[in-house]
Amino acid sequence: MEPKPLVIETPSGVVRAFAEPKGDDAVIYTLGGALRGRIHVTGTHHPFEWDQFTALRATFGAVDAMAGLPSADSLPRLSNSTALHTANLVMWDGPYGPEQAGSEIESASGRPVSPKTGETLRAALCAVIQDAARRPDRPRILAASRARDTPALLRFFESSGRASQADIARYERAAQDIRHHARMGRRAAAAWWVAAQWLITQPHPALLLLLADHPGSLARTALTPRGDAAWYEAEADQERRRLKRFTAEAASLRAQMPPRRHLARTPDSGR
User: Fold this and answer.
1) Same domain, yes or no, for 127 and 209?
2) Domain boundary among 114, 135, 156
3) Arithmetic mean of pLDDT, 204-208
4) Which one of 2, 74, 103, 266 is most buried, counting C-beta atoms within 10 A?
């Protein structure tokens, strides 16, 4: 018995999409009717919680947008046109229902996409990802996608964590330097006023030199603008929060990884 197609009403006519699993982590929808081409759907992490694989990503063509470039013959086009198109869409469960975010629909040739064509392609993309969300094998797709993407995500968290640690140290040094120079400036200003009082009561050429504005002088030290130490400290705090999130999400991903299988040792295995 042939599977029933997903029927999609669009401004350009009826589109029929036939779904076929591709491995454990994806589904390919082959388009017929008003559109030709394919749409690839796979699992991905939540856009705001990278350790939670609860979202789906649909991409025009036969491969995932994050995996490579699809072949030209798999990109969707109107049945009466040769213009090929690219786009992707991510859908996840939000607090008030499904939420979506994606790229603009573009022509592979770079030419503008007409409003009618854009609405047709958008309708097909949305209908396909919604259909994939209702599939009984969605949990398997999400689990396989998590297993596929976890190593790359862990590498990302590791490199981002190192960058955050370096940024925290840089911001802290900058804040400390600013506060140090601010203290020196206040001391220089106080000393300048003392010297000015001396000049009034006991004029002397050495005091004029002490009060003059030149590199390294009291006046230059007191008047040199300082940075905002509070800004650098706020940036350091933000990086600490980011590092804490990276660390927690990396630990969560590791906890979700299946345990490694160890081969049982036999008497001959050590020979």
Assistant:
1) no
2) 135
3) 61
4) 74
Which alpha helices (DSSP H) does the chain contain, by range?
A: 115-133, 138-201, 205-211, 218-223, 229-256
Residue 264 belongs to a domain? no
Q: Under 8 Å CB-to-CB from 259, ≥6 apart: which residues?
A: none
Which two three-digit tokens encode residue 142?
Answer: 């999400």
- The full length of the chain comes to 271
What's at 217, amino acid-wise?
A: S
- Bridge-based pairing of strands 97-102 and 77-78 is unpaired
Asked if residue 81 lies in contact with residue 35, where contact means CB atoms within 8 angstroms, the answer is no
Q: pTM for the full model? A: 0.76
Domain range for 186 is 146-256
Task: Tell me, yes or no, whether 20 lies in a domain.
Answer: yes
Q: How many domains does the chain contain in total?
A: 2
Q: Decide: helix, strand or coil at residue 266.
A: coil
SS3 257: coil
pLDDT tens-digit series, residues 227-248: 677 888 899 999 999 999 999 9
- Residues 180-204 have pLDDT tens digits of 776 766 776 676 666 667 657 777 6
The two structure tokens encoding residue 168 = 């925290």
Going by pLDDT thresholds of 50, 70 and 90, the confidence category of residue 224 is low
Tokens of 30: 């082959």
**Distance, C-alpha 113 to centroid of its chain:** 27
Which one, of 89, 83, 91, lies nearest residue 116 by Cα? 83
Side chain identity at residue 178, one-letter code: I
**8 Å CB contact between 59 and 88:** yes
Residue 270 has pLDDT above 50, yes or no: no
